[in-house]
Structure formats: C-alpha cells, structure tokens
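Lab notes, practical 5.
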Amino acid sequence: MESEGGFGMKNHFVRTAAKGLIVGGTMLVPGVSGGTMAMILGIYDRLVTSVSSFMKHKRASFLFLALFSLGGITGMLVFANPLLVLIEKYPMPTLYFFLGAVAGGIPVILRQAQIERFSWKVPFYTSLGVLLILLFSKLPMGTFQAEADSGVMKVLLLSAVGFVAAVGLVLPGISVSYLLLLMGQYDITMKAISDFDLFILIPLAIGVLLGIVLTTKALERAMKRYPQTTYLMIFGFVAGSVVEVFPGVPVGMGLPLCLGLLAAGFCLIRLLSRQEIKS
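Output from the prediction step:
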C-alpha cells in the first residue's frame, strides 16, 4: 500500500508539471505573460528561488525545474497553436477567460506583498508598475527588429533574442510574444516551434537560459530586501497587462458566454491556488 507521503509527493509532481503545461501553453499567446501565469498559479516564487539558488539545493531544484520545464515545453508544442487559433477566431471569449484567470490570481500576489496597513507605497508602486507596462506596450512592432543571414551572426542574434525573451518569462506582465514581435522574431519563433527546428530553437534556448539565470538572481535579491515594493510593482505589471489585453464589452449573446468564461477562469485559478496553499 502506498504511503500517504508518497501519494502527496506524486500529487505535488503532477501539479508542478500541470502548471508548467499551462504556463508553456499560454506564454506565446500575444499579450499573455508567462510570468503572470506563473504568479497567479502560485508557483512563481519557487521558480525564482530554484533558478537563482540552484547550487544550494541541487537535487530538489533540478527535479522541480525539470518537471516544470517538461510541462512547459509540452504546453508550447501542444497548446500554443490551438490557443492562437482560438484568439484569432473567438478573441473576446478567449481573452475573457484569461482575464478571469488573472483576477483569480490577484489575492496570491497581494498576499505576497504582505500589506498590513494602507500607505502611500501601495498606490505609488502599483501605479508605477502599470505605467511601465503601458509605456512598454506603446512601442511600435519591429522597433528592435534585427536580421542576420546565416552562420555565427545568426546564432548570436538568436541567442540575444532568447536572452531578451527571458525577461518576459521572468517578469510578470511582460509578454514574451510581444517582445518577439518588437524584435521581428515572432513568426520565425512560432514556425520553429511548429516545425521543431533545432537550428533555431537551440540558440534561442541558450539565450533564454542565460537570461533567466541572470534576471532571477536580481529578482530574488529584490524580493528578499524589498518584498513589499517588489510585489506591489509586480501587481502593477499584472494590472497593466490586463488593461492591454482587455477586448472591450461584449454585446448580445456574447455577454453571457464571456461572463461565464470569465467566471470559469477565475474559479479554476482559485482552485489551483487553494491546492497550492494546502500542499
């Protein structure tokens, strides 16, 4: 008979992989941030700590990151294109589901901020986070477009693109897909994922890994030294991303459908968040 501890451990592994699946499946959807999804799923802090302090807890960090990455890669390969099709054909209902999911994760973020009493810091740093995301979103597509024909320069370019994209993976509210669009690499990346083109994916992956390691180390320091300020700005990042993806108010029969999906997204994330707290 399997012990309760063993069952609980397996359940934890399944949840980690499932959350990676969700993050991976959604982070290439334009306007949706992988960092935001990790935050609202309650797995964000563990990701940052596992990467930045990997050498202190090698076995536990490796197992956690391997499970999450396996789920993330599977989500990218299996769900990224279907989600993009849904966004294209049914943009409003799909985005309302994502909005509900973000709303369901807000209590998690505010709990991390440890707000014991209201002060000027709450509106100031939240507004600052919102402002930074809104300013970033106003940059025109292709602002940082770069091209390379072949050889070493192409590898370096793709690694640099991966490094920049890592910012969108680590920081909530910043969409990886939007960063790729700014650099003129979105279509190339999506095609490489669809075709499993390793000549493009490997240099990208190297840049992403390097960017994640450096960014998470800086972020972990900020979380430890200035936890309230950091989480309030993260809350602002998330709020700013909601403003950017808000598709408008539905009309006619679309209204009950959108509201139903909004509620479904909210309830799903709240359920996952409670399971994370219990564990």
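Observations recorded by the TA: The chain has a mean pLDDT of 79. The longest helix spans residues 58-89.
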